[in-house]
Hints:
This protein has helices spanning 17-30, 38-46, 50-56, 103-111, 115-118, 132-137; strands spanning 7-11, 61-67, 70-79, 86-94, 122-128, 141-142, 154-160. By secondary structure, it is an alpha+beta fold.
Amino acid sequence: MKGVKAMYIRRFENNDAEELSEVIAKTLRTVNIKDYTAEYIEAEIAGLTAEKLTEGAVWKHVYVVTDEDSIIGCGAIGPYWGKEDESSLYTVFVLPEYQGSGIGRKIIETLEKDEFFLRAKRVEIPASVTAADFYIKMGYGYKNGVTEPDEEGLVRLEKYR
Length: 161
């Protein structure tokens, strides 16, 4: 685990997109590979390119975590299927060498102060199998009591406010 020198959380800017897509790809290939096939991981990475991240930032609030000038993590929140009273957390990632140092918790705390969280009665997370236990520690529970991954390979978690 790497020590953080100067952590800062801020909103995503379009010029972050390339570096952020590399952070996500590295994390998926290093950490999530224990729960998913290489084909699944590469399909996920293909959906999280710099271009896709920039497009998503139009309708989601995306945050990046930096250590000095390098992006080391991210998280996003947006409306759940366009609803005003429900939201979803998306693309929460921390570089493998920084995991376990409280950065994921800081990302969730930041997302839970965002207007999309504050207006919602319910917040859903389409969580990877890899990250489900982390979100449960953060107070999220299994949607409809279902603990197994769905057809997309995701565990649906939620929190009511």
